[in-house]
Every structure is written in structure tokens, then in C-alpha cells.
Amino acid sequence: MNRFARYLLAFGLSLAPLGAAAHPHVFIDAGLRLIYGEGGKLTEVEVEWRYDAFYSLLILEDYGIRPAAGGGLSASDAARLAGFDWDPDPAFEGALYLTVEGRRVGLQQARDFGVSLEGGQIVSRHRRALSTPIPGEAQTIIQVYDPEFYVDFSVPQSPALRGRDDCHVDLRPGDSYAAADAYAAALREALARELASASLLDEEMISVNIGSVGAPEMRVVCGAAR
To answer: What's phi and psi for 74, nearest 5 deg?
Structure first.
């Protein structure tokens, strides 16, 4: 099951077969900061996920948390929530994908978790170190997406930079309509296969992977290669 599905299922909000229009269930605005270290190489990415207000409410309800005075989180509640949305399973890719010259860049497990509550929205943070730092002069393509399209990620702003001031970032917003169309097509194919095998699974029980269709994309290059 998708990592993000458990809160909705716990509240019985995604049990009915709602069809392709039921996706996505969660909306996240993602923010990134690119960290350049020794030799001007990209070494880490700081990630921020700002959840939609409705899903934030479900998370707070699930943990039995009431906002503190002023609408934030107490230190103890923030500590309880830190890392709530991260799956330690190595297969969990964390919705962050980097490629250089068509090759996927390996990322280490997340660390330095933090959570805050801002305007009724949960904002979670973590850091991902690159398995091998990459030269800033190499064009790096960064995408943020959920291949199951359970979550619709958007990237409202270009990544912030730390450690270099000579980089150019080309932010290409995603296309949720394209992702929704790809999901609907994949779901129809999956349902046809289930019907052919006389399966009685409903649409919410079928896992569909649409890859990076419609995903926001950032192209980053530094120095003379700009």
C-alpha cells in the first residue's frame, strides 16, 4: 500500500470504489535546497513537504494531537511527528529523483527529520545525502513525484542553493492533468486484466505506476557550463 494511504483508510475515506477521479488523495507542495560542498559538488538535498490542510488534519487526529496556543506544535508533539512520513524500507524512494546524463543518482536514507504546523498545514523536513557527490557543472535533472499518483506533488519555487552562487535553475512546473490521464489509462488496463482473471478487486485495491508523467522538473547547472 502507498505510504500515504493509511490515514485516509483509517478514517474510511477511500474505501469506496471512486474510480480514476479519486486520485490523487494527497496534495503536497515540495521545497528543495541544494547543498554544495567541497569542490563545488552537489552533496545533499534538503527537502520540505507542505501537506494540504485536510490531510494535515487527518494526521493530527491519528496522533491525537491538538495544536498548541498560536496554532503550532508543542516541542513534544513535534518530536512525536518527526519522520512520521518516512518509510525506512530501502525500496521507498522518497519521491525525489536525480539524474545526470540519463543515469539515476543514488540517494542515502533520510535524516535530520523535523515537523512544524503552519497555518493548519503540516510541514515535514528531512535531508538526503547523495551516495556520490556530483560536479555542479554537470547538468542535474531533479524531479519530485509519486509514481502511484496517490500524492500530487507540486514545486511552487525553484530550489534554494547553498555553497554556490553561480548556478542556474530551470523550473518546469508539472502537469497534473497529464498525470491524471496517464493514471486513468493505466487503471483501465489494470482493471481489464483483473476482469479477465475474474478478480473482484476494486479500483482502490489496484496499484498503478505511471512513473514520472506530469512531474515537476528542475534542470540545474553551475559555473561555466551555464
So the answer is: -70, 160
The one-letter code for the residue type at 180 is A
Phi, psi of 212 (to 5 degrees): -100, 15
Query: What are 158-177's pLDDT values in tens digits?
Result: 999 999 999 999 999 999 99
Output the domain CATH number for residue 190: 2.70.170
Pairing of strands 96-100, 41-51: unpaired
Report the alpha-carbon distance of residue 90 to residue 108 in Å, rounded: 9
DSSP code for 31:
E
Q: What is the pTM for the complete model shown?
A: 0.87
Domain coverage including residue 47: 5-225
**Domain count of the fold of the chain:** 1
- Taking only the tens place, the pLDDT of each residue in 86-110 is 988 888 899 999 999 999 999 999 9
